[in-house]
Amino acid sequence: MDAKLQERIAAVFPRPADVPEAFRLPKPVEQREYLLGGEIRSWPGELREVRSAVCLRGGPGGGPEPARLGAFPLLTEKEAAEALAAARRAYDSGRGQWPTMPVAERIRHVEAFAFRMKEKRDEVVRLLMWEIGKTLKDSQKEFDRTVEYIAGTIDALKELDRVSSRFSIVEGIIAQIRRAPLGVVLCMGPYNYPLNETFTTLIPALIMGNCAVFKPPRMGVLLFRPLLEAFRDSFPPGVVNTVYGEGRKVAGPMMAGGDVECLAFIGSSKAADVLKHQHPKPHRLRCVLGLDAKNAAIVMADADLDLAVAECVLGALSFNGQRCTAIKIIFVDRKVAKEFTQRLAAAVDKLAFGMPWTDGVSITPLPEPGKPGYLAELIAEAKAGGAEVLNAGGGAANATYFHPAVVYPVKPGMRLWTEAQFGPVVPVAPFDDVEEPVRYVVDSNYGQQVAVFGNDPKQLARLIDPLVNQVCRVNLNSQCQRGPDAFPFAGRKDSAEGTLSLSDALRVFSIRTLVAAKGTPANKEILSRIVREGESSFLSTDFIF
User: Is residue 213 one of the residues assigned to a domain?
Assistant: First the structure.
């Protein structure tokens, strides 16, 4: 490794005085608050310390040490049970104020929350940067995209309700078909997109009339504190409740009681399996799961290599590769493998690295404890099997910082072949026959997305047709990604359960139900009076603009 690069990695972390004043945390966030039954309560018990992905130099230990950001409550099974009971009271077997509220009124509550949320943008963005090491630009983008998602969800619900605001008459039966809530939802988001991914399940679940308990992820937890008052003031008591602590101590008991009707979870498939199996009534439980992925890219011999390299770098290393939609292995035709890998390594070498607030930075420290060591093990095992690190400084580490590494050639049997590394390591494998990467996708335990790069329409069509039956999105000459939010986001195999999008999420957190009556004169008069006099929220022909 070049001595200058080595020095830059060694000095990647600042001293406290070197942090720009605009991005400094004024003091640790010692959170004791949690929301339960419409009240913000204070927790008198044990707290869990929160350490930043960002390290600071000059501490007592001499070397760079993760900055202390504060602490959050380690609630117990008792508080979790109380939160679940509050949600159940608010739902009241579907008779509560929230599930029986007209759609237009629920929309107004969600709009009020979004308005209050926007007031906390700077505070939430700063905590996103410090907690998980996300760049300033991406932290701002996550916040703004979440606000846009709320607005998009409202528009999608208006459209869905407009379609439902009419009666159908079939074979002499008059009916109105609408969507009704499921009940109590336990919502748990991931650390890599703690705000956005949590709200892509929580907001549609709420707006469809469900009541919720949500547990922030173990990293990216303090950023929800500024929003507690907005939740309290924007929704009826018990509609939204927060639980903090260790998943096995709070989430597990809630599931084991059988009172959760829907589990919205984004994380590992192993954790999801544990939670699902704890529920005593599996046929009553609806699951909305975003899980693991090992998305592959396939680079054909006739691909535009400039384009393929640019998209693969973005796909593999955006937010340090810590995305379920990241490209986690690249297959390249052996005829262009040498040129592709040289260009790929050169492009990775050009990526700026540093602290999240540094303008133009792409690679930042990692929030997950022990992650650099895990990634180093993957690279060492691959090198022992004959692979090389092609870019300068690839795999070099300093505390929580890990320099991105392009590893080639990766082969079957290596851990990088099958494990979803979820970090800045880019495995590349050559192929002689395109059937090899197709077979990889077929045999994989995961089925989220794939990216295909090439220019021959006939060859691409022959790839697309089998791949759409293995994954839920084939990206043509572009990286794997979730957006736009209007598009369905799903996965096969161990990658997901349920489909999310602005409209799909409304459907997945609700169920079609109807009121039907024989078309007798008496029934027609009854239905007409109910609608005309506004006696029912369900039976209504009101049109929401």
Answer: yes
Angle, helices 121-132/136-164, rounded to nearest 10 degrees: 120
> Per DSSP, what are the bridge partners of residue 58?
none
Q: What share of the chain is helix, strand, coil (3-state, %, to 5)?
A: 40, 20, 35
The rounded distance, in Å, linking the Cα atoms of 291 and 446 is 9
CATH number of the domain where residue 266 is located: 3.40.605.10
List the beta strands (DSSP E) in 57-152.
65-73
How far is the C-alpha of 416 from the C-alpha of 132, rounded, in Å? 24
Q: Does a cis peptide bond (omega within 30 degrees of 0) precede residue 484?
A: yes
Residues 409 and 451 in one domain: yes
Residues 316 and 283 both lie in one domain: no
The confidence score (pLDDT) of residue 2 equals 85
In residues, how long is the chain?
545
Nearest residue to 23 via CA among 98, 168, 135: 135
**Max intra-chain CA distance, the chain:** 89
Which residues, at least 6 apart from 541, have a Cβ–Cβ distance to it below 8 Å?
A: 165, 166, 167, 531
70 lies in a domain? yes
Q: Give yes or no for a contact between 243 and 83, defined as CB atoms under 8 angstroms apart.
A: yes
In which band, very low, low, confident or very high, does the pLDDT at 26 lie, cut at 50, 70 and 90? Answer: confident
CA distance 153 to 489: 15
Determine contact, residues 30/47, Cβ cutoff 8 Å: yes
| Same domain (yes/no): 309, 211 | no
Taking the C-alpha atoms of residue 417 and residue 361, their distance in angstroms, rounded to an integer, is 29
Instruction: Give the residue carrying structure tokens 């509220």.
Output: 101
Pairing of strands 262-266, 184-188: parallel
Closest alpha carbon to 202 in 256, 149, 278: 149
Cα angle 30, 34, 40; round to 5? 110
Alpha helices by DSSP H, listed for 235-368, are 247-256, 269-278, 305-317, 334-349
204-215: pLDDT as tens digits: 999 999 999 999
pLDDT at 431 over 80: yes
Q: How far is CA 398 from CA 370, 373, 413, in A?
A: 12, 10, 29
Q: What is the DSSP string of 406-467?
A: EEE---TTSHHHHS---SSEEEEEEESSTHHHHHHHHHSSEESEEEEE-S-HHHHHHHHHHH
- How far apart CA 176 and CA 538 sit, in angstroms, is 8
For position 347, what pLDDT does the model report? 98
- pLDDT band (50, 70, 90) for residue 433: very high
Both 243 and 128 in one domain: the answer is: yes
Q: What is the pTM of this model?
A: 0.95
Alpha carbons 219 and 66: distance in angstroms, whole number: 13
Give, as one character, the DSSP assignment of residue 97: T
Instruction: Identify the domain containing residue 200 by its residue range.
Output: 3-290
Give 391: exposed, middle or buried? Use CB within 10 Å, 0-12, 13-18, 19+.
buried
Residues 249 and 324 both lie in one domain: no
